[in-house]
From TrEMBL:
Protein known as: Amidohydrolase 3 domain-containing protein
InterPro entries tied to this protein: Amidohydro_3 (IPR013108), Metal-dep_hydrolase_composite (IPR011059), Metal_Hydrolase (IPR032466)
GO molecular function, one term: hydrolase activity, acting on carbon-nitrogen (but not peptide) bonds
Positions of the Amidohydrolase domain: 47-562
Organism of provenance: Mycolicibacterium mucogenicum
Pfam families, alphabetized: Amidohydro_3
Signal peptide feature range: none
Biological classification of the source: Bacteria, Bacillati, Actinomycetota, Actinomycetes, Mycobacteriales
Domain of life the protein comes from: Bacteria
Amino acid sequence: MSRTTLIRSSKILTFDETVPVAEAVLIEDGVIREVGAFAELAQGDVQIMDAGDAVVMPGLIDTHPHVMHFGALRGGLVDLSDAVDHADIVERIRARAAETPAGEWIFCTPVGEAHYFIRRSWRDLAERRLPDRHVLDRATSAHPVLIQAWAPRTPNIVAFNSAGLRAVGLTDFIPDQVCDVEIDKDEDGRLTGILRGPVNNYYTYDPFWGQILLKLPPLNPAHAIPGVVEEMARFSANGVTTLYEGHAMEPVHLAGYQQLRAAGMLTMRVQATHDVESAIFYPFDPLSLADFEERLNSLAPPSSDLSDDLFRVAGMTISPGGPCFAGHFAMHESYSDPFGRPTKGNRFVSLEKEESFVRFCAQHGIRANICVGSYREHDDFLEIAERVVRDHDFRDKAWILQHAITISPDHVRRYKALGFQVTTSVGFAWGKGAMYDERMGRHIWRDMVPLRRMLDAGLDVCGGSDWGPKSPWEQIALAQTHEIAGTDLRNDGPDQVITRAESLAMWTTVAAKVLGWNEIGSIRPGNHADLIFVDRDPLTCDVEDLKQTRVHRTMLAGNVVHDDGVLA
Protein backbone atom coordinates (compact mmCIF):
# COMPACT_ATOMS: atom_id res chain seq x y z
CA MET A 1 0.00 0.00 0.00
CA SER A 2 1.25 3.48 -0.83
CA ARG A 3 1.58 5.82 2.11
CA THR A 4 -1.33 7.92 0.74
CA THR A 5 -4.67 6.16 0.42
CA LEU A 6 -8.13 7.46 -0.38
CA ILE A 7 -10.92 5.34 1.07
CA ARG A 8 -14.27 5.58 -0.68
CA SER A 9 -17.50 4.20 0.77
CA SER A 10 -21.23 4.44 0.31
CA LYS A 11 -21.27 5.82 3.85
CA ILE A 12 -18.54 6.92 6.23
CA LEU A 13 -19.72 7.56 9.78
CA THR A 14 -17.14 9.94 11.20
CA PHE A 15 -18.48 10.44 14.77
CA ASP A 16 -17.30 14.01 14.27
CA GLU A 17 -20.11 16.54 14.73
CA THR A 18 -18.63 18.94 12.18
CA VAL A 19 -18.89 16.37 9.34
CA PRO A 20 -21.07 13.48 10.59
CA VAL A 21 -21.22 11.60 7.28
CA ALA A 22 -18.78 11.59 4.37
CA GLU A 23 -18.00 9.54 1.28
CA ALA A 24 -14.21 9.62 1.34
CA VAL A 25 -11.33 9.86 3.79
CA LEU A 26 -7.73 10.56 2.81
CA ILE A 27 -5.05 8.99 4.97
CA GLU A 28 -1.30 9.54 4.79
CA ASP A 29 1.40 7.87 6.88
CA GLY A 30 -1.21 6.40 9.18
CA VAL A 31 -2.95 9.73 9.87
CA ILE A 32 -6.27 11.08 8.59
CA ARG A 33 -5.57 14.13 6.43
CA GLU A 34 -8.95 15.07 4.96
CA VAL A 35 -12.57 13.96 5.10
CA GLY A 36 -15.21 14.88 2.54
CA ALA A 37 -16.48 14.28 -0.98
CA PHE A 38 -14.71 11.71 -3.13
CA ALA A 39 -14.46 13.96 -6.20
CA GLU A 40 -12.74 16.68 -4.18
CA LEU A 41 -10.23 14.36 -2.54
CA ALA A 42 -9.42 12.13 -5.54
CA GLN A 43 -6.64 14.38 -6.74
CA GLY A 44 -3.03 13.53 -7.55
CA ASP A 45 -1.23 10.26 -6.98
CA VAL A 46 -3.32 8.42 -4.41
CA GLN A 47 -4.25 4.79 -4.06
CA ILE A 48 -7.99 4.29 -3.93
CA MET A 49 -9.47 1.71 -1.56
CA ASP A 50 -13.12 1.15 -2.45
CA ALA A 51 -15.19 -0.10 0.46
CA GLY A 52 -18.24 -0.63 -1.76
CA ASP A 53 -21.38 -1.02 0.32
CA ALA A 54 -19.48 -1.44 3.57
CA VAL A 55 -19.93 1.31 6.14
CA VAL A 56 -16.66 2.84 7.33
CA MET A 57 -16.39 4.12 10.91
CA PRO A 58 -13.74 4.68 13.57
CA GLY A 59 -12.27 1.64 15.28
CA LEU A 60 -13.92 0.69 18.56
CA ILE A 61 -12.36 1.25 21.99
CA ASP A 62 -12.86 -1.52 24.55
CA THR A 63 -12.27 -0.06 28.01
CA HIS A 64 -12.34 -3.33 29.97
CA PRO A 65 -11.13 -6.17 27.71
CA HIS A 66 -8.58 -8.27 29.69
CA VAL A 67 -6.85 -9.16 26.43
CA MET A 68 -3.52 -9.75 28.17
CA HIS A 69 -5.12 -11.95 30.85
CA PHE A 70 -7.41 -14.02 28.65
CA GLY A 71 -4.82 -14.31 25.89
CA ALA A 72 -2.12 -15.52 28.27
CA LEU A 73 -4.54 -17.95 29.93
CA ARG A 74 -5.64 -19.41 26.58
CA GLY A 75 -2.15 -19.60 25.12
CA GLY A 76 -1.09 -23.19 24.52
CA LEU A 77 -4.41 -24.68 25.63
CA VAL A 78 -6.39 -27.23 23.65
CA ASP A 79 -9.42 -25.26 22.48
CA LEU A 80 -12.60 -27.13 23.39
CA SER A 81 -14.88 -24.10 23.28
CA ASP A 82 -16.74 -25.41 20.21
CA ALA A 83 -16.35 -29.16 20.82
CA VAL A 84 -19.47 -31.14 19.90
CA ASP A 85 -19.04 -34.49 21.67
CA HIS A 86 -16.63 -36.69 23.61
CA ALA A 87 -15.07 -38.15 20.46
CA ASP A 88 -14.28 -34.62 19.27
CA ILE A 89 -12.66 -33.79 22.63
CA VAL A 90 -10.61 -37.00 22.61
CA GLU A 91 -9.35 -36.33 19.10
CA ARG A 92 -8.28 -32.77 19.92
CA ILE A 93 -6.41 -33.86 23.05
CA ARG A 94 -4.87 -36.84 21.23
CA ALA A 95 -3.52 -34.51 18.55
CA ARG A 96 -1.89 -32.32 21.20
CA ALA A 97 -0.48 -35.36 23.00
CA ALA A 98 1.25 -36.47 19.80
CA GLU A 99 3.41 -33.34 19.87
CA THR A 100 3.85 -33.03 23.65
CA PRO A 101 6.64 -34.79 25.60
CA ALA A 102 5.36 -37.56 27.84
CA GLY A 103 4.65 -36.45 31.38
CA GLU A 104 3.89 -32.83 30.50
CA TRP A 105 0.46 -31.45 31.38
CA ILE A 106 -2.13 -30.86 28.67
CA PHE A 107 -4.55 -28.13 29.66
CA CYS A 108 -7.83 -27.50 27.86
CA THR A 109 -10.24 -24.59 27.71
CA PRO A 110 -13.73 -25.08 29.11
CA VAL A 111 -16.40 -26.30 26.73
CA GLY A 112 -18.72 -23.52 25.56
CA GLU A 113 -18.82 -19.84 26.53
CA ALA A 114 -16.47 -20.23 29.42
CA HIS A 115 -17.30 -17.43 31.82
CA TYR A 116 -21.06 -17.72 32.20
CA PHE A 117 -21.98 -20.99 30.40
CA ILE A 118 -25.37 -19.54 29.48
CA ARG A 119 -25.67 -19.91 25.72
CA ARG A 120 -23.38 -22.93 25.45
CA SER A 121 -21.66 -25.21 27.94
CA TRP A 122 -20.65 -28.82 28.51
CA ARG A 123 -24.37 -29.55 28.79
CA ASP A 124 -24.63 -28.97 25.03
CA LEU A 125 -22.24 -31.79 24.19
CA ALA A 126 -24.02 -34.75 22.59
CA GLU A 127 -23.55 -36.67 25.83
CA ARG A 128 -24.85 -33.74 27.93
CA ARG A 129 -21.87 -34.02 30.31
CA LEU A 130 -18.13 -33.57 30.46
CA PRO A 131 -16.01 -36.64 29.63
CA ASP A 132 -14.78 -38.52 32.71
CA ARG A 133 -11.26 -39.87 33.24
CA HIS A 134 -11.99 -43.09 31.33
CA VAL A 135 -12.95 -41.11 28.21
CA LEU A 136 -10.00 -38.73 28.58
CA ASP A 137 -7.63 -41.71 29.04
CA ARG A 138 -8.48 -42.73 25.47
CA ALA A 139 -6.79 -39.51 24.34
CA THR A 140 -3.60 -40.11 26.34
CA SER A 141 -2.39 -42.03 29.34
CA ALA A 142 1.10 -40.54 29.13
CA HIS A 143 0.09 -36.97 29.95
CA PRO A 144 -1.89 -35.44 32.82
CA VAL A 145 -4.98 -33.74 31.33
CA LEU A 146 -7.25 -31.08 32.80
CA ILE A 147 -10.34 -29.49 31.28
CA GLN A 148 -10.36 -26.17 33.10
CA ALA A 149 -13.04 -23.98 34.62
CA TRP A 150 -12.71 -20.21 34.37
CA ALA A 151 -14.15 -17.55 36.66
CA PRO A 152 -16.52 -16.07 37.66
CA ARG A 153 -19.23 -18.75 37.51
CA THR A 154 -19.35 -20.66 40.79
CA PRO A 155 -20.03 -23.56 41.34
CA ASN A 156 -18.14 -24.79 38.29
CA ILE A 157 -16.79 -28.08 36.95
CA VAL A 158 -13.46 -29.55 35.83
CA ALA A 159 -12.36 -32.92 34.48
CA PHE A 160 -9.06 -34.80 34.96
CA ASN A 161 -7.80 -37.92 33.26
CA SER A 162 -6.25 -40.68 35.38
CA ALA A 163 -2.73 -39.28 35.02
CA GLY A 164 -4.00 -35.87 36.05
CA LEU A 165 -5.61 -37.27 39.20
CA ARG A 166 -2.34 -38.95 40.14
CA ALA A 167 -0.34 -35.79 39.46
CA VAL A 168 -2.39 -33.75 41.94
CA GLY A 169 -2.51 -36.57 44.50
CA LEU A 170 -6.19 -37.50 44.32
CA THR A 171 -7.08 -41.14 45.07
CA ASP A 172 -10.23 -43.12 45.77
CA PHE A 173 -9.67 -42.78 49.51
CA ILE A 174 -10.43 -39.05 49.51
CA PRO A 175 -13.86 -38.08 50.93
CA ASP A 176 -16.68 -37.23 48.55
CA GLN A 177 -16.36 -33.57 49.55
CA VAL A 178 -13.43 -31.56 50.89
CA CYS A 179 -14.13 -27.93 51.81
CA ASP A 180 -16.62 -26.87 49.11
CA VAL A 181 -15.24 -29.15 46.39
CA GLU A 182 -17.41 -32.14 45.45
CA ILE A 183 -15.33 -35.09 44.27
CA ASP A 184 -17.36 -37.29 41.94
CA LYS A 185 -17.18 -41.07 42.30
CA ASP A 186 -18.84 -43.97 40.49
CA GLU A 187 -21.04 -46.61 42.09
CA ASP A 188 -17.93 -48.57 43.14
CA GLY A 189 -16.48 -45.56 44.94
CA ARG A 190 -13.84 -44.90 42.28
CA LEU A 191 -12.91 -41.38 41.20
CA THR A 192 -14.47 -40.33 37.91
CA GLY A 193 -12.10 -37.37 37.41
CA ILE A 194 -14.97 -34.85 37.71
CA LEU A 195 -14.76 -32.17 40.43
CA ARG A 196 -17.42 -29.55 41.09
CA GLY A 197 -17.58 -26.40 43.20
CA PRO A 198 -15.18 -23.43 43.48
CA VAL A 199 -12.84 -25.10 40.99
CA ASN A 200 -12.13 -21.97 38.92
CA ASN A 201 -8.62 -21.07 37.87
CA TYR A 202 -8.98 -17.60 39.46
CA TYR A 203 -11.29 -15.75 41.86
CA THR A 204 -11.27 -18.86 44.03
CA TYR A 205 -9.97 -19.10 47.58
CA ASP A 206 -11.15 -22.57 48.57
CA PRO A 207 -8.28 -24.07 50.63
CA PHE A 208 -8.57 -27.55 49.13
CA TRP A 209 -8.86 -26.43 45.52
CA GLY A 210 -6.11 -23.91 46.16
CA GLN A 211 -3.73 -26.71 47.10
CA ILE A 212 -4.53 -28.47 43.84
CA LEU A 213 -3.87 -25.25 41.90
CA LEU A 214 -0.45 -25.01 43.54
CA LYS A 215 0.41 -28.50 42.25
CA LEU A 216 -0.24 -27.45 38.65
CA PRO A 217 2.65 -26.01 36.63
CA PRO A 218 2.62 -22.22 36.15
CA LEU A 219 1.67 -20.62 32.87
CA ASN A 220 4.25 -21.33 30.20
CA PRO A 221 5.77 -17.97 29.18
CA ALA A 222 6.44 -19.41 25.73
CA HIS A 223 2.69 -19.76 25.23
CA ALA A 224 1.62 -16.45 26.76
CA ILE A 225 2.72 -14.05 24.03
CA PRO A 226 1.35 -16.16 21.13
CA GLY A 227 -1.88 -16.46 23.11
CA VAL A 228 -2.14 -12.68 23.45
CA VAL A 229 -1.43 -12.26 19.72
CA GLU A 230 -4.31 -14.62 18.96
CA GLU A 231 -6.56 -12.77 21.40
CA MET A 232 -5.72 -9.44 19.76
CA ALA A 233 -6.66 -10.97 16.40
CA ARG A 234 -10.06 -11.94 17.80
CA PHE A 235 -10.62 -8.37 18.98
CA SER A 236 -9.47 -6.94 15.64
CA ALA A 237 -11.98 -9.19 13.88
CA ASN A 238 -14.68 -7.55 16.01
CA GLY A 239 -13.54 -4.05 15.07
CA VAL A 240 -11.66 -3.11 18.24
CA THR A 241 -8.55 -1.01 17.63
CA THR A 242 -7.83 0.33 21.14
CA LEU A 243 -7.79 -1.34 24.56
CA TYR A 244 -7.88 0.10 28.06
CA GLU A 245 -6.27 -2.44 30.38
CA GLY A 246 -7.12 -0.84 33.71
CA HIS A 247 -7.82 -3.84 35.94
CA ALA A 248 -5.54 -6.47 37.53
CA MET A 249 -2.55 -5.35 35.49
CA GLU A 250 0.56 -6.39 37.35
CA PRO A 251 4.11 -5.50 36.19
CA VAL A 252 4.42 -8.82 34.34
CA HIS A 253 1.35 -7.98 32.28
CA LEU A 254 2.62 -4.54 31.33
CA ALA A 255 5.96 -6.13 30.47
CA GLY A 256 4.08 -8.45 28.09
CA TYR A 257 2.66 -5.49 26.18
CA GLN A 258 6.06 -3.82 26.17
CA GLN A 259 7.55 -6.99 24.68
CA LEU A 260 4.90 -7.03 21.96
CA ARG A 261 5.53 -3.34 21.24
CA ALA A 262 9.29 -3.82 20.99
CA ALA A 263 8.84 -6.79 18.65
CA GLY A 264 6.45 -4.90 16.35
CA MET A 265 3.66 -7.37 17.20
CA LEU A 266 1.20 -4.98 18.84
CA THR A 267 -1.79 -4.85 16.49
CA MET A 268 -3.90 -2.44 18.53
CA ARG A 269 -3.39 0.56 20.73
CA VAL A 270 -3.18 -0.10 24.46
CA GLN A 271 -3.48 2.18 27.45
CA ALA A 272 -2.82 0.48 30.78
CA THR A 273 -2.53 1.09 34.50
CA HIS A 274 -0.65 -0.60 37.32
CA ASP A 275 -2.87 -2.50 39.80
CA VAL A 276 -1.32 -1.86 43.20
CA GLU A 277 -2.54 -5.10 44.77
CA SER A 278 -4.31 -7.67 42.62
CA ALA A 279 -6.32 -10.35 44.42
CA ILE A 280 -7.43 -12.45 41.47
CA PHE A 281 -5.09 -15.43 41.54
CA TYR A 282 -4.56 -18.01 44.28
CA PRO A 283 -2.84 -17.75 46.70
CA PHE A 284 -3.68 -14.18 47.67
CA ASP A 285 -1.62 -13.07 50.66
CA PRO A 286 -2.51 -9.43 51.43
CA LEU A 287 0.35 -6.97 51.70
CA SER A 288 1.00 -5.24 54.98
CA LEU A 289 0.17 -1.54 54.99
CA ALA A 290 3.90 -0.72 54.96
CA ASP A 291 4.52 -3.01 51.97
CA PHE A 292 1.47 -1.59 50.22
CA GLU A 293 2.76 1.96 50.62
CA GLU A 294 6.21 0.89 49.45
CA ARG A 295 4.56 -0.57 46.35
CA LEU A 296 2.75 2.72 45.73
CA ASN A 297 6.10 4.52 45.74
CA SER A 298 7.73 1.97 43.45
CA LEU A 299 4.89 2.10 40.90
CA ALA A 300 4.57 5.89 40.85
CA PRO A 301 7.48 6.66 38.47
CA PRO A 302 6.31 4.36 35.62
CA SER A 303 2.61 5.16 36.13
CA SER A 304 2.44 7.94 33.55
CA ASP A 305 3.99 7.61 30.11
CA LEU A 306 1.91 8.92 27.21
CA SER A 307 4.81 9.31 24.79
CA ASP A 308 4.06 6.28 22.59
CA ASP A 309 1.23 6.11 20.07
CA LEU A 310 0.71 2.38 20.59
CA PHE A 311 1.38 1.65 24.24
CA ARG A 312 0.67 4.14 27.02
CA VAL A 313 0.61 3.90 30.80
CA ALA A 314 -1.73 6.25 32.64
CA GLY A 315 -2.39 5.82 36.32
CA MET A 316 -2.78 3.21 39.03
CA THR A 317 -5.66 0.96 40.05
CA ILE A 318 -7.01 -0.45 43.28
CA SER A 319 -9.56 -3.28 43.32
CA PRO A 320 -11.18 -3.75 46.75
CA GLY A 321 -13.94 -6.15 45.68
CA GLY A 322 -14.71 -9.23 43.65
CA PRO A 323 -17.59 -10.86 41.75
CA CYS A 324 -20.89 -11.89 43.25
CA PHE A 325 -20.83 -15.28 41.50
CA ALA A 326 -18.13 -16.46 43.90
CA GLY A 327 -19.72 -14.67 46.85
CA HIS A 328 -17.26 -11.77 47.13
CA PHE A 329 -19.67 -8.89 46.43
CA ALA A 330 -19.50 -6.66 49.54
CA MET A 331 -23.01 -5.83 50.72
CA HIS A 332 -24.54 -4.36 53.88
CA GLU A 333 -27.12 -7.14 54.10
CA SER A 334 -26.65 -10.89 53.82
CA TYR A 335 -27.25 -12.71 50.55
CA SER A 336 -26.65 -16.31 49.46
CA ASP A 337 -23.18 -17.43 48.48
CA PRO A 338 -22.78 -20.06 45.70
CA PHE A 339 -23.57 -22.83 48.18
CA GLY A 340 -26.65 -21.30 49.80
CA ARG A 341 -24.93 -19.93 52.90
CA PRO A 342 -25.51 -16.34 54.06
CA THR A 343 -22.67 -13.94 53.33
CA LYS A 344 -22.04 -10.21 53.19
CA GLY A 345 -19.14 -10.70 50.81
CA ASN A 346 -15.60 -9.69 51.61
CA ARG A 347 -13.00 -7.05 50.99
CA PHE A 348 -9.65 -7.72 49.33
CA VAL A 349 -8.08 -4.39 50.26
CA SER A 350 -8.37 -2.84 53.70
CA LEU A 351 -9.88 0.60 54.23
CA GLU A 352 -6.48 1.79 55.48
CA LYS A 353 -4.88 0.78 52.19
CA GLU A 354 -7.73 2.30 50.21
CA GLU A 355 -7.27 5.65 51.94
CA SER A 356 -3.50 5.45 51.50
CA PHE A 357 -4.04 4.86 47.77
CA VAL A 358 -6.45 7.78 47.40
CA ARG A 359 -4.21 10.20 49.30
CA PHE A 360 -1.10 9.07 47.43
CA CYS A 361 -2.69 9.56 44.00
CA ALA A 362 -4.12 12.94 45.03
CA GLN A 363 -0.79 14.16 46.42
CA HIS A 364 1.26 12.99 43.43
CA GLY A 365 -1.15 13.93 40.65
CA ILE A 366 -1.58 10.31 39.55
CA ARG A 367 -4.76 9.31 37.76
CA ALA A 368 -6.50 6.82 40.01
CA ASN A 369 -8.76 3.96 38.96
CA ILE A 370 -11.09 2.41 41.53
CA CYS A 371 -12.64 -0.94 40.59
CA VAL A 372 -15.79 -1.43 42.67
CA GLY A 373 -19.26 -2.74 41.97
CA SER A 374 -21.32 -3.16 45.15
CA TYR A 375 -23.13 -0.81 47.50
CA ARG A 376 -20.75 -1.25 50.43
CA GLU A 377 -17.71 -0.80 48.17
CA HIS A 378 -19.15 2.48 46.85
CA ASP A 379 -20.05 3.69 50.34
CA ASP A 380 -16.60 2.94 51.73
CA PHE A 381 -14.72 4.49 48.84
CA LEU A 382 -16.85 7.63 48.57
CA GLU A 383 -16.49 8.33 52.28
CA ILE A 384 -12.71 8.20 51.87
CA ALA A 385 -12.65 10.16 48.60
CA GLU A 386 -14.86 12.94 49.93
CA ARG A 387 -12.69 13.24 53.01
CA VAL A 388 -9.49 13.38 50.96
CA VAL A 389 -10.83 15.87 48.44
CA ARG A 390 -11.12 18.44 51.25
CA ASP A 391 -7.34 18.27 51.55
CA HIS A 392 -6.39 17.60 47.92
CA ASP A 393 -8.80 18.71 45.24
CA PHE A 394 -8.45 16.07 42.53
CA ARG A 395 -11.64 16.88 40.65
CA ASP A 396 -9.67 18.12 37.63
CA LYS A 397 -7.86 14.75 37.41
CA ALA A 398 -10.94 12.89 36.05
CA TRP A 399 -10.36 9.71 37.99
CA ILE A 400 -12.03 6.55 36.69
CA LEU A 401 -14.67 4.38 38.34
CA GLN A 402 -14.54 0.86 36.89
CA HIS A 403 -17.31 -1.77 36.88
CA ALA A 404 -20.18 0.14 38.63
CA ILE A 405 -22.22 -3.07 38.45
CA THR A 406 -24.72 -1.73 40.98
CA ILE A 407 -24.77 1.97 41.77
CA SER A 408 -27.48 3.99 43.50
CA PRO A 409 -28.68 7.50 42.57
CA ASP A 410 -26.82 8.89 45.59
CA HIS A 411 -23.59 7.19 44.52
CA VAL A 412 -23.96 8.59 41.00
CA ARG A 413 -24.46 12.11 42.33
CA ARG A 414 -21.41 11.89 44.57
CA TYR A 415 -19.14 10.47 41.88
CA LYS A 416 -20.21 13.28 39.56
CA ALA A 417 -19.41 15.86 42.26
CA LEU A 418 -15.92 14.36 42.56
CA GLY A 419 -15.36 14.61 38.80
CA PHE A 420 -15.21 10.88 38.08
CA GLN A 421 -15.60 9.18 34.72
CA VAL A 422 -16.93 5.63 34.33
CA THR A 423 -16.18 2.46 32.42
CA THR A 424 -18.63 -0.41 32.76
CA SER A 425 -19.99 -3.43 30.91
CA VAL A 426 -23.65 -4.07 30.19
CA GLY A 427 -22.56 -7.69 29.92
CA PHE A 428 -22.41 -7.81 33.72
CA ALA A 429 -26.18 -7.42 33.88
CA TRP A 430 -26.69 -9.74 30.90
CA GLY A 431 -24.60 -12.56 32.33
CA LYS A 432 -25.29 -12.21 36.05
CA GLY A 433 -28.73 -10.62 36.29
CA ALA A 434 -30.50 -13.92 36.89
CA MET A 435 -27.97 -14.82 39.58
CA TYR A 436 -28.47 -11.46 41.33
CA ASP A 437 -32.21 -12.07 41.24
CA GLU A 438 -31.82 -15.54 42.76
CA ARG A 439 -29.30 -14.71 45.48
CA MET A 440 -30.13 -11.09 46.39
CA GLY A 441 -33.58 -10.35 45.05
CA ARG A 442 -34.86 -8.50 42.02
CA HIS A 443 -34.78 -5.17 43.83
CA ILE A 444 -31.09 -5.08 42.91
CA TRP A 445 -32.01 -4.70 39.23
CA ARG A 446 -33.09 -1.08 39.67
CA ASP A 447 -29.44 -0.14 40.25
CA MET A 448 -27.84 -2.69 37.89
CA VAL A 449 -25.66 -0.94 35.26
CA PRO A 450 -27.97 2.12 35.17
CA LEU A 451 -26.56 3.78 32.04
CA ARG A 452 -29.41 6.29 31.65
CA ARG A 453 -29.07 7.39 35.27
CA MET A 454 -25.33 7.96 34.90
CA LEU A 455 -25.61 9.82 31.59
CA ASP A 456 -28.43 12.03 32.86
CA ALA A 457 -26.22 12.94 35.83
CA GLY A 458 -23.57 14.17 33.38
CA LEU A 459 -21.07 11.36 33.85
CA ASP A 460 -18.89 10.27 30.93
CA VAL A 461 -19.55 6.53 30.57
CA CYS A 462 -17.73 4.16 28.25
CA GLY A 463 -18.09 0.44 27.55
CA GLY A 464 -16.08 -2.73 27.87
CA SER A 465 -16.52 -6.44 27.24
CA ASP A 466 -14.82 -7.92 30.33
CA TRP A 467 -16.25 -11.46 30.83
CA GLY A 468 -18.66 -11.26 27.94
CA PRO A 469 -20.25 -11.22 25.54
CA LYS A 470 -16.91 -10.48 23.93
CA SER A 471 -18.57 -9.02 20.82
CA PRO A 472 -18.75 -5.22 21.20
CA TRP A 473 -21.75 -5.21 18.87
CA GLU A 474 -23.68 -7.34 21.33
CA GLN A 475 -22.63 -5.01 24.14
CA ILE A 476 -23.77 -1.99 22.13
CA ALA A 477 -27.15 -3.66 21.53
CA LEU A 478 -27.47 -4.62 25.21
CA ALA A 479 -27.21 -0.96 26.18
CA GLN A 480 -30.61 -0.59 24.50
CA THR A 481 -32.26 -3.87 25.44
CA HIS A 482 -30.72 -4.77 28.82
CA GLU A 483 -31.58 -8.43 28.26
CA ILE A 484 -31.01 -10.90 31.09
CA ALA A 485 -29.30 -13.96 29.61
CA GLY A 486 -30.93 -17.32 30.22
CA THR A 487 -34.35 -15.72 30.64
CA ASP A 488 -36.98 -13.92 28.57
CA LEU A 489 -36.64 -10.89 30.82
CA ARG A 490 -35.20 -7.45 30.25
CA ASN A 491 -34.09 -4.88 32.78
CA ASP A 492 -35.03 -2.07 30.43
CA GLY A 493 -36.22 0.41 33.02
CA PRO A 494 -36.00 4.21 32.94
CA ASP A 495 -32.59 4.16 34.66
CA GLN A 496 -31.01 1.74 32.18
CA VAL A 497 -31.94 2.24 28.52
CA ILE A 498 -29.95 4.62 26.32
CA THR A 499 -30.12 5.39 22.62
CA ARG A 500 -28.13 3.70 19.87
CA ALA A 501 -26.09 6.84 19.28
CA GLU A 502 -25.25 7.08 22.99
CA SER A 503 -24.32 3.40 23.08
CA LEU A 504 -22.00 3.71 20.08
CA ALA A 505 -20.43 6.79 21.64
CA MET A 506 -19.51 4.67 24.67
CA TRP A 507 -17.23 2.69 22.36
CA THR A 508 -15.86 5.61 20.32
CA THR A 509 -15.90 9.31 21.21
CA VAL A 510 -16.68 9.04 24.91
CA ALA A 511 -14.15 6.25 25.38
CA ALA A 512 -11.49 8.42 23.74
CA LYS A 513 -12.43 11.30 26.05
CA VAL A 514 -12.23 9.13 29.16
CA LEU A 515 -8.81 7.81 28.14
CA GLY A 516 -7.62 11.33 27.35
CA TRP A 517 -6.59 10.11 23.91
CA ASN A 518 -7.71 12.83 21.54
CA GLU A 519 -6.42 11.20 18.36
CA ILE A 520 -8.76 8.19 18.40
CA GLY A 521 -12.51 7.52 18.49
CA SER A 522 -13.55 9.60 15.47
CA ILE A 523 -12.67 10.18 11.83
CA ARG A 524 -11.36 13.71 11.58
CA PRO A 525 -8.18 15.33 10.26
CA GLY A 526 -5.20 14.73 12.52
CA ASN A 527 -6.56 11.56 14.09
CA HIS A 528 -4.96 8.15 13.74
CA ALA A 529 -6.31 6.21 10.76
CA ASP A 530 -7.89 3.50 12.91
CA LEU A 531 -10.86 2.46 10.80
CA ILE A 532 -13.26 -0.43 10.44
CA PHE A 533 -15.41 -1.53 7.51
CA VAL A 534 -18.70 -3.12 8.61
CA ASP A 535 -21.49 -4.81 6.68
CA ARG A 536 -24.34 -2.64 8.00
CA ASP A 537 -25.07 0.79 9.42
CA PRO A 538 -24.78 0.32 13.19
CA LEU A 539 -26.64 3.58 13.82
CA THR A 540 -29.82 2.60 11.99
CA CYS A 541 -30.03 -1.20 11.67
CA ASP A 542 -32.45 -3.20 13.80
CA VAL A 543 -31.13 -3.92 17.27
CA GLU A 544 -31.26 -7.68 16.66
CA ASP A 545 -29.34 -7.25 13.41
CA LEU A 546 -26.76 -5.10 15.20
CA LYS A 547 -25.63 -8.12 17.22
CA GLN A 548 -24.71 -9.89 13.96
CA THR A 549 -22.54 -7.07 12.64
CA ARG A 550 -19.64 -8.41 10.60
CA VAL A 551 -16.37 -6.52 10.35
CA HIS A 552 -14.88 -6.98 6.90
CA ARG A 553 -11.72 -5.01 7.51
CA THR A 554 -9.91 -3.37 10.41
CA MET A 555 -7.13 -0.83 9.95
CA LEU A 556 -4.70 0.44 12.55
CA ALA A 557 -2.78 3.57 11.53
CA GLY A 558 -3.75 2.84 7.94
CA ASN A 559 -2.45 -0.73 8.03
CA VAL A 560 -4.81 -3.67 7.63
CA VAL A 561 -4.78 -5.86 10.76
CA HIS A 562 -7.91 -7.87 9.90
CA ASP A 563 -9.54 -8.72 6.58
CA ASP A 564 -12.17 -11.40 5.98
CA GLY A 565 -11.60 -11.41 2.21
CA VAL A 566 -15.04 -10.08 1.27
CA LEU A 567 -13.95 -6.63 0.06
CA ALA A 568 -11.93 -6.16 -3.10
